Amino acid sequence: MFRRTCLVLVVALGTSVVGSGANAQATSDVPRRPWPSAEAVIKDTAGKNVGFLSIDHRLYNKSRLTVTVSGLNAGYHGFHVHTRGVCDPKAVDPVTGSPFSSAGAHFAIHPATHGEHSGDLPNLLVAEDGTGETTVVTDRFRVGQLFDSDGSSIVIHTLPDNHANIPDRYRPADPGDPAGGSGPDAETLKAGDSGGRVACGVITRN
Ligand SMILES: [Cu+2]
Ligand SMILES: [Zn+2]
Question: What does the UniProt cofactor note say (predicted)?
């Protein structure tokens, strides 16, 4: 019995020594991450922290966004990367009345209408308890591209985003409309009818 216990002890010690040696080796050999990652603390108009976003680089020039939120209204919310890294709740859009207009329009590396913007993301689903979490992988931007001269931000809207998916049959002809009287109108092509902005977070490198 004693012999058996000793044997187990020796084996355990051996494993531990090899383990710490391997760890020490690995630590000194690990290069600094070659790809940038990013994060954002998401705040509502009162400055209350309602969420956190992290973004990291994925293979094949993709980016992975992971977000958790709490204290929001249940349901789907439009969710986009916006083109300026400024989240001022007092910056009210004179046309829509939405706060956080300082964040600018949807992040777009190339000119596009809504649904095709670089920063367009799937809707964020918030549960009845006000919490939500989602992870999405996009190939529309690399992490480094978010840090252009005016930065970028993440914005959560009040309403669901239709991604400009308005089939022609839902809209009567309107000769005055720049979209030509059928399908999504100019407002839909801008932001998907996702309404005002409820929360915003400046995207920073980490
Ligand atoms: Cu938005
Ligand atoms: Zn968009």
Answer: Binds 1 copper ion per subunit.
